Fold this sequence. Notes:
This protein is mostly beta strands. The chain contains one helix and six strands; from the N terminus they run ββββαββ.
Amino acid sequence: MLNKAILMGRLTRDPELRHTQSNTPVASFRLAVDRGYRANAENPQQQTADFIDIVCWDKQAEFVSKWFTKGQLVAVAGRIQQREWKDRDGNNRVSFEIVANEVHFAEKRGAPGAEPAPGPRAAAPAASPPAGDPAPGGFAELEDDGELPF
């Protein structure tokens, strides 16, 4: 069986970093993914978008919460997951989300339409791995000097 999703879109809000009871980092965010243009009588150039929930775990969660902010264009690869839950009224609900294995910057810093690169976010301090320990994507994490590592 194959379950692979690849998306590119803009973050609708800053990623939210939480920890499970066993102290495993988990980050969640939402992507606005354009569908393209759909012509209609009232507005022939109306652009539509889907809003997709994304969740990532462990080092990937710490990386995302540290470097990504609202409005950035990002590329996500992962799998689709269905969750079943009950709302406040006891009704059964189903939601779908992408469990991200990879999250990448999808635009060059300073590109037209790009948000300014913020550097590491102060709201999400994350312990740095030991020198030479690969960060998500297989690259060693550089010492934090307030700039993006490229």
